[in-house]
Protein 1
Amino acid sequence: MKIISWNMGCGFDTGGYSKHHDVALGWLRAQEPDVALLQEVQFARFASWKGMRVHSVPTSPGRSSGNAVAVRADRLEPIGVVIEGALVAGARARVTGDDFILVSAHVLTGERQEQALANFASKVSGMVAGSRFVVGGDFNASLHWPKYGTWFFDPMRAAGFEDTRPQPQEVQSYWGRGSMSIIQDDHVFVDRVTKAAVARGSWAILSGDDHRRWSDHGPVVVEALD
C-alpha cells in the first residue's frame, strides 16, 4: 500500500503556489498512490482522478479548497467529522484487501492550538478504535518544541497511533516563512499492524527543487509491504 500525505499549499485561490497546482497534481497522479491524504488542495483542479474515489471537505462553506481523501478502491464511504480547531476529511474504504478508516487532517495554529490537538486526539482515537487506519496531514506540531510532545504526540501514542517515521529525529517538511531546518509539521499515523508493514517498506519526505516550488510543504510518502 502506497500512501501520500501532502499539504499542497493552495488554501486560497490566488498565491504563489496556485500557479504550480496543475503540475503538482500531475506529479501526484503519476505516483499512483493507493491512498492520498491532501490538505489545501483546490477541488476544481482535482475533480477527476481516474481509478480513484475522492471525498473532499472545504475549509469553510462555499470555499473551493480544503482537505481530501482519495483512495484506489471500488467504494468509499465518507465519515462526517467535526473537530473544533481542525479541518478533517474522513472515510471508510477497502484498500489492498483490508478495510481502513482514512483521515486527512489540517490542525490550525493559534492561541487554542493545544485544545485543538487534544480535541483531535480524543475524537479520532474513538473514530478508529478497533479498525485498521491511516491518519495523516498537516498538524502544525513538531517535536522541535517539547510542549507538542505533551500536547499531541504522547496522547496520540497512548491512544494507539503509530508514527510511520522510522527514526526518532524529525525530517523537515515545511519551508515556508519563518521555518527552521528541523520543523516537521506533516505526519502519518497508522495502526500497529500497518506499522509493521511500513517497517518492511519505506518512508520519506520529499523536498527536491520541484516539491519546494510546488508547495511550502513536502509530501510524506509511505509504502507498507505486507
Note: The radius of gyration is 16 Å.
Protein 2
Amino acid sequence: MMTRACEGKSWTFCEIRPDAIIGFVPQNNAMNMAQGLGLFLSLWKEVEKQGDEVRTVPFPGSREAFEALHTDTSQDILARFHIFAAGHRDLVSHRAFNVADGAAVTWKQVWPEVCAWFGLKGGEPEQRSFNAQEWMESHQSQWADWVRRNGLKEGALEGTSWDFMQAVASLPFRRDYDLSAIREIGFTEERQHSLGYIRTFEEMRRAKIIP
C-alpha cells in the first residue's frame, strides 16, 4: 500500500522496526519497560532493606525467560537510525529495517547490571517464578508515603503499566533481531544493552521520578 501511495510522488518511505524501546519520557507512558523497572527496583530497595543489607532481587520471570535471547532498542539508537535513514534516502527507500542496540543478549546478562545501578544484587529466577507486578500491587498502600518522603513527582507509579513490565520480562522465547540490513547500509552504531536502562534511570532520577 505504501509503495502504491508514493508512486509518482516526491516522497518515499521506509519501515523502522525496534524491539522493546528502552527510554525516558517526562510524562507517563504505560508501555515503558524501563520506567516500570526503575520504580520497582527503587521501591524494592527501600521496602526490602534489612539493616544495612538489601535482599537479592529475584528475576521476575521463569528460567526460560531469563535465558531467552532478545535485542532491546534504546531510544538514542532508534532516534539516530531515524536520522541516518532520513539522510540516506537512496539506501532505505521501500525497505524495512530492524533496529536494536547490538548483538542479542539475555536477561541473565542484563539483570545483574540493571540491579547493580540501584546498589542491589540481581538474582536468578526462583523455582516458583517471582512476579514483580504482584509485588508492586501488594505494596500499593506504601506508594504515596514513599513519594512524599523522597520528594518525588506524583502520578508516576499510578501511571505505570505493571502488567506490561511483567509481560516483557516473562517472555519465554527468543525474539532477537537480525541487524544485517542496517549494517549493510552503513549504520554501525551500537551500545551495551544495559546502558540504555542506566541512561533512562539517570533521567528518571533527574526528573524526580525515582530517588
Note: The longest strand covers residues 15-18.
Protein 3
Amino acid sequence: MNILLISGSRNPKGQTARAAQAFLAGATDNGARTEIVFLPAMKIERCRQCDENGWGTCRTQGRCVIEDDLAGLFEKIKRADAVVFATPVYYGDLSESLRAFLDRLRRTCWHRPRKNGLEGKPAVGICVAGGGGGGSYACVVGLEKLLATCGFDILDMIPVRRQNLEMKLAVLPTVGSWVARGLGGRNS
C-alpha cells in the first residue's frame, strides 16, 4: 500500500503536521509506504480561467496549460493507492496552497467520465483548526465537495480543533492503520 499525504501547511512541526504524522504512524505500522508533499514548497499557481468561458485545455484535454508542479503531483496521486489531504483551517476554509491545487485539479478531471484516473481513488481529509479552534467542520465540508468533484472515494473526513487535538492524535493512527490494512476491508 502506497499512501501519499498532501499537506497544505507551511509549518512542518505545527498542529497539522502533528495530525498528519499521527495518521502516517498508523499506516506505516501496518506496512504502508508513505510520502509527504508540502504544497507551500511547490510551485502551484492559481487557475487562470484561460478562455472567455473560464475554461481552456483543462476542459477539452484534461490538462492545464500552466507549467508548474501540478502535472507531476497529479502523476504521484495516480500512482498512490490512497491519498490523504491535510490542511490547516484558515477562516473556515482550506489553506491557500491546497485551495489553489484542488481548484486546478478539479478542472483537469472534470471533463472525463473516469476523472483522469482519480475515479474511486481512496482519500482521507484532515482539517486542523488552531487559534480559536473554529471552522474545522466547514473546512471538511468544502474539502469533501472538492474531492468528490474529482471522483475520489472519500473514506473519512476528520475535523480537528485545537481543543481536541490531543484526542484526535490518539485516533488518527487508528484511521491510518485502517487505510493501510486495506481500506476497511475493501482491498487486500
Note: The CA atoms of residues 22 and 173 lie 5 Å apart.
Protein 4
Amino acid sequence: MNTDIIIHPKLQHVGLTTPNLDAMLDWYRKVLGLTVNKRVDVPAGQPGRPPFRAVAFGSNDEINHRISFFEMPEISVDPDRNRHAKVQHIAFSYDTLDDLLGTHIRLKELGIHPVWAADQFFQTAIYYEDPDGNIVELNANNFESEWTVIEQLKALPTRLLVYVDPEKLIAARKAGASPWEVHQRATAGEFPPTKPYELGSSY
C-alpha cells in the first residue's frame, strides 16, 4: 500500500443538483446520448431521508456513471450565477471535428442551440446551456496527438480564442476544406459569428 507518493486518480463524474430531474435527463439524453443506469426515488416520509427527492446515475460510455443528478425541488436556478463562484462548465470531447459539427447539426434539428462557439487554438469548442443553466462544452482537438495538444496548450498566446459560427465551419467543410484548413481559417478570423454572442451566465 503506497502512502508516500501521489497516486493520480482519473476524473470520473460530476454531480449536479436540479429542481427538475426529468427535464435534465431528457436534455442530457439528447445531447450526450446519456443512459440512466440507476434512478432512485426517495419517498417523502422515509426515515433518515437524504436531502434530495430522487437521484439518477447516468453515463454515455463504459464508466458506471459520468453525471449524478440529485433532484431537490425546493432549490431554484440562480439567475445571477455569473456573479457567483460556480463550476464554470463541464466538457465532453469528440474524436473529430466532423463528429462535433455533425452533433451541432443534430442538436439544431432538435431545437437545441449553442450559446457560443470558438476556435481555442488547441481545440474547437461549442457551448450549450442545459435546462438549469449549467454550461456543457462539446469539443474536438485541432491536433492529432494528445501530446501535441498539450504542447499547444502550454504555448497558448494571450489571445486565447477566436469566436466562430459553427454554421460557417460546416459550410467550409462541405466546400472541401480539411479540418486543419478550417482551424487555420478560423484562427485567421474568417468565420466570425453573424452577431456577437451574448455570453451572460455562460461565464
Note: The mean pLDDT is 92.
